[in-house]
Write a structure and sequence with these properties.
Layout lengths: L14 E6 L3 E7 L17 E5 L2 H11 L4 E7 L3 H13 L3 E5 L5 E7 L5 E5 L12 H9 L1 E6 L3 H4 L2 H7 L2 E5 L11 H4 L4 E5 L6 H11 L4 E5 L5 E4 L7 E3 L14 H14 L4 H15 L12 H11 L18
Parallel strand pairs: 1-4, 1-8, 2-6, 4-5, 8-9, 9-10, 10-11
Antiparallel strand pairs: 2-3, 6-7, 11-12, 12-13
Organism: Streptomyces roseoviridis
Pfam family, one: PfkB
GO molecular function: kinase activity
Length: 330
């Protein structure tokens, strides 16, 4: 669906989280192993499927399933891929403000191995350097929002000063940043909460501390898959290790696990929970995502998240579950 950024029920925030960017379509190809051996052809089972859902879509869905009032803003094409994105938001009930993208909707091919690892191939022709999200639209939606989650796409970089002016807190996900690529730095140093994968980092602690020192982040989280996550709450604070949790089923795909972690973390953070408790919510949501095949777009619900956090929470001062209703009222 498309919605007007100027509509809303009067003063005060009526959007808990504004998600910017990251709308697109993935074609999922299950392969016998990664890296895929060279051959003239491979027989693919259970088949090749195309579905809507990239990083912004997954974060928006995760937040929405947890009961937060979520709104998604991005450039979307007038093409079959755009129809899939629009249908996903319509069917899930997630408001979408779409800006027309003449180059077409973002798309990618994900090769998924038997162990759930993936290799993503992104179509770099679906955008231009001068792509922008209209400033008046960003400002209007930000004025209605409590928090903004900014995807790591080129148009979103230009929204960061606008969001800061609007006074909303900002989170971002740097994904597999190597700790030095210049493109990611504007996101890393402008956000209040920074998520990133430790996969490509030679020294994760050094990178997390650099983000905290050079930027404005009060929380930096490095996710490490089955090794859990690293949590830093200030440049001079101790680095905290958050253990991984056991997934509720077989691990079939890691696609969307980082997005699910961010959604679970933000759910607890908006409820006022401490960072360790927020990270526990994130690990539970991320573990659930690893049990969902890449051909489906699904996220953990609030009741299931809270039940698992309550089960894992320690009675002697460890992480505690947040209230079951965290909606932000104006």
């Amino acid at each position: 669906m498309s919605s007007s950024p100027d509509s809303g029920p009067g003063p005060g925030p009526d959007i808990d989280v504004l998600v910017l960017g990251g709308a697109g379509v993935d074609t999922i190809v299950y392969v016998p192993e990664l890296p895929l051996p060279y051959a003239d052809s491979h027989m693919i089972r259970p088949g090749i499927e195309t579905r809507a859902g990239q990083t912004g879509d997954f974060v928006a869905l995760g937040l929405h399933r947890l009961g937060l009032r979520t709104h998604h803003l991005d450039l979307v094409g007038a093409d079959p891929e755009g129809d899939l994105v629009r249908a996903l938001h319509r069917d899930q009930g997630i408001p979408l403000t779409e800006v027309r993208q003449p180059a077409g909707t973002k798309r990618a091919v994900n090769l998924v191995g038997p162990d759930g690892r993936r290799l993503s191939l992104y179509d770099a022709t679906r955008g231009h350097d001068d792509d922008r999200l209209p400033p008046h639209t960003v400002k209007a939606l930000a004025a209605r929002s409590r928090h903004a989650h900014v995807s790591l796409t080129q148009p979103c970089a230009h929204t960061l000063p606008l969001l800061r002016e609007a006074g909303v807190t900002i989170s971002t996900d740097l994904h597999d940043w190597d700790g030095s690529a210049a493109y990611h730095q504007s996101f890393a140093f402008a956000a209040d909460i920074v998520f990133l994968s430790t996969t490509a980092l030679d020294d994760p602690e050094r990178t997390l501390r650099e983000i905290a020192v050079r930027g404005r982040a009060s929380v930096v989280v490095g996710t490490a898959g089955a090794a859990g996550a690293l949590l830093l709450t200030g440049p001079d604070e101790d680095l905290h290790h958050v253990p991984a949790v056991t997934p509720p089923g077989p691990v079939v795909d890691s696609n969307g696990a980082g997005d699910a972690f961010a959604a679970g973390f933000l759910y607890a953070w908006l409820a006022g929970a401490d960072p360790v408790t927020c990270a526990l919510h994130g690990t539970v949501a991320g573990a659930f995502a690893c049990t969902v095949p890449a051909t489906r777009t699904e996220a953990i619900g609030r009741d299931a998240l809270l039940a698992e956090v309550a089960r894992l929470g320690s009675p002697d001062g460890g992480p505690r579950p947040v209230p079951g209703h965290v909606r932000i009222e104006g």
